[in-house]
Amino acid sequence: MKFQKLVLNNIGPYNGFNQFEFNPEGQKNTILIGGKNGSGKTIFLTSVRLALYGPLAYGYKTETVEYLNKVSALLNKEAKENFYIQLEFVMDENLKKRNYKILRSWYVAKSLVKESVDVFKDENHLNDVQKDDFFEYLRTTFPPSLLEICFFDGEDLSKLSNDDLLSSYLEDLSAKLFNLELFSTLEKDIETYISRSNKSGKEKKLEIEKNQLKEKLKKLKQQLEYCLSTLKHLNIEFEETKIQYNKTKQDFTTHGGLIFEERQQLSREIIQIENERKQLQDQIKEFISKYLPFFISYPMLKQLVTQLDDEENYFMANLLREKISNLSLEQLLREIHIELEPKIIHQFKNKLTKELSTHKEVPIIHNASKTESHQVKSLFIEINQKKLSSFIEMIKENKEKFQVLCNLKQRLKDNETTTEFNEMIQVMDQANKKMIELQSQMDKWMADKEKLEQEIEEISRKYDKVNNELYNIYKVKSSFQESKKILMVSRKFRENQLRKKLKDVEFFSTKMFKSLLRKDSFFSRIMIDHRTFSITLLDEHQQEINKSSLSAGEKELLVLSIIWGMIKASKKQLPFVLDTLLGRLDNEHKHSVITKLVPNFGHEVIVLSTDSEIDEKLYKDLIPYISNEYTLHYDISNKKTFIETHFFNYGRERTVQ
């Protein structure tokens, strides 16, 4: 990828139309952009990210509210419309160079920011499907993580002088530059697959669980068989007892029909009265538990209702007073064409307040909600003399029915003792009691049967599940072995590729570091461990050099040399942005970086610098490699950044085409 042009229209401090042209060509691979702190260099970098990736530039997958809020903060506050970033660049696609233009624009509607994106390929506007395909291709061939590699910040580079940080950075950098991330991801997926299937001896655990479930199923089925057998015997005994009862009842009916009918009638009356008494007793219990306490404390309940009414009136009066106070009577009267003096209006307002919101001062005790107040008042309405009278009537009626019930039971008892068929009656009673007992036993065993059937069904499901899991484990065991082989081959291939690439990195880094240092015979070789990415410096006698003996500037040159070596070994053609790169270097080392490193950093290098970093002498050293130069000048009074087509006062003003 090679950047051609960046246009910022009402973005950050870039008010109106602002344009950067890059056009690197051959030896002139450098675009020099100068500016003091706060002049807009950070917005420049952010705009490149935003133009290419939109929400992905901020870590969002889609246009979320948070993303649009960040964009809104980026838009120029003085402008009202026409916000956009336009980035033009060249990409290699199917061995052909293609010219692309991304136009990402925003407009504000009802305080909400809306985004639209247009993409042009060789001046042809892409439709929505083609646009989606392009961004997918861009994300895979030039992802945001790769773009971040292209942006070098001097402050971040100085931190990499720490060995641990540098090793970690180089490991990450090598994965992205040498296309090894795919293998790392594949290996992690295979490891997850294998570990998920063999975790903690899962197969053995499942086999134990399967045997336990099988044994439990066997016991439950034995219990169910016993339960069914018992139910069968109880049912036979119940039917035999029922036959005996019906035969005795038939004989009794045949020989003592009148007496029997009388007994049946008495029994029916007893059952009916007992049912009526049960309903009355339930009503009495409900009254005692629900209403009786409030009848006992009726004065307190009445006082509570009065207090709630007073509080409600008090709140209503305050609300009316506030409404009247805020009422614009003057405007209201004018609308109906009535003109009154302000004094009369004020008097009328006071009179209205007095008439509508008169109230007494009430201490707020309960501060109840409308629902709570309504419930209390509804209860108070129910607590009346009529309710109490109905309760007394229920007690009286229950007492009367109890007396009638006692008389009926006594008559039934007298009937039994006087009848000559007493023996038949006793046989029927015994049979009836036995049937009731047998029915109770059958109900209990039936409940046990249903419970056992549910347990058997549940255990069977668990057994089937475990059995299926074991089957799948047995089924894919062979695939685990193949996966392990693939994992081993991938690791070996990645390790070999990395070792080869790092050999190239060592060669290029050593060559660059030697050219940047002023100590010609200080060292002979840089070595990089392909497992730990630790850096070792060797002197001309192949003895290790203590890196702590390097100055801060030399450590930074070492980091730059290794990063350059990584990029050189990767053979990737990428645009690079170097931001405040020379801050910690002395003039001699700055000269080396400007004349040796920057020209060889890539086919396109954008250098962001302050005037204290690149002075007039260094600027002259860099001139042979500059294709375009700019200075960002921030006007504090207008809060606007102006782009001047020269580097501070060293360069000569140009006209941007």
Low-confidence sequence ranges: none
Physical arrangement of strands within the biggest beta sheet? 2-1-4-5-6-7
Per DSSP, what share of the residues sits in E-state strands of 2 or more residues?
15-25%
Q: What is the rounded distance between the termini?
A: 22 Å
Count of DSSP strands:
15
By secondary-structure content and strand pairing, the structural class works out as alpha/beta
Biggest pleated sheet: 6 strands, antiparallel
Gross morphology: flat
Q: Give the number of helices.
A: 19
Gyration radius, to the nearest Å?
48 Å
Roughly how much helix do the residues carry, as a percent range?
55-70%
Query: What's the rounded overall pLDDT mean?
Result: 83
Protein name: Rad50/SbcC-type AAA domain-containing protein
Pfam families: AAA_23
Domain Rad50/SbcC-type AAA: 5-225
Organism: Caldibacillus debilis
How would you describe the overall organization of this protein?
With 657 residues, the chain is α/β, with parallel strands linked by helices. Among the domains are: 206-268 and 426-472; 282-416, no CATH class. The protein has 19 helices and 15 strands. The strands form three sheets. The protein has a six-stranded antiparallel beta sheet with strand order 2-1-4-5-6-7. Strands 8-12-13-3-14-15 form a six-stranded mixed beta sheet. A hairpin with a 4-residue loop joins strand 14 (626-635) and strand 15. Helix 11 packs antiparallel against helix 13 (342-356).
Provide keyphrases for this structure.
P-loop_NTPase; single chain; 19 helices; 15 strands; alpha/beta; 657 residues; coiled coil; Rad50/SbcC_AAA; flat; DNA_S_DndD; Rad50/SbcC-type AAA domain-containing protein; six-stranded antiparallel β-sheet; six-stranded mixed β-sheet
